[in-house]
Write a structure and sequence with these properties.
mainly alpha; 2 strands; two-stranded antiparallel ribbon; globular
């Protein structure tokens, strides 16, 4: 029920934001964001001049660039491709395929599977911090058909982890009388 309400709200906001003369339908929007990323992934050309793991290790390149010991990190906004509508969403597999080929996709699938399975198991068994972390990182699972939100946005994900841990470390348990 909540998912339907959120979806309806998202579509309403999208069409309110669009121009009045825009003839885009809900089906067009869904086609662009659900079907096009996998097709767009097939249109990617791999740039061999990029450093090793340019997308997967982008956080490390950005940090190294800040310290002037690494090259400029790659842009996270990818180029537009026509498929036939313009899109720049390439699925979760893009950074791993671009950097390491099919082996990268396999390793990404296995590591994400272990990571999210473990986080889910801990959230069910222990709750608390683990439940909040799983809830916060679940956007990665929901948005995986659009792009990678875990590794490419590692800085934001680490900040979420740190802030969540600070809240749980400095909060106290409250017992309510019945």
């Amino acid at each position: 029920m909540l998912a339907a309400v959120v979806f309806a709200l998202m579509m309403s906001l999208h069409f309110m934001r669009a121009a009045v003369s825009n003839e885009t339908t809900i089906e067009d929007v869904l086609a662009i964001y659900i079907y096009s990323p996998l097709v767009a992934l097939g249109h990617i050309s791999i740039d061999n001049s990029l450093p090793v793991g340019a997308y997967v290790f982008r956080f490390l390149y950005a940090f190294g660039n800040y310290l002037d010991i690494a090259p400029q990190p790659v842009e996270t906004i990818l180029p537009w491709v026509e498929i036939p509508e313009p899109t720049n969403t390439y699925t979760l597999m893009h950074p791993f395929y671009n950097d390491f080929g099919l082996l990268g996709v396999l390793l990404q699938a296995v590591s994400y599977g272990f990571f999210f399975s473990g986080l889910y198991w801990l959230s069910i068994k222990q709750g608390g911090l683990w439940l909040v972390l799983f809830s916060g990182y679940s956007i990665v699972l929901v948005g995986q058909f659009i792009g990678d939100f875990l590794v490419i946005n590692l800085s934001g994900n680490l900040q979420f982890l740190i802030y969540t841990m600070v809240v749980f470390l400095f909060s106290r348990e409250v017992c309510y009388a019945r």
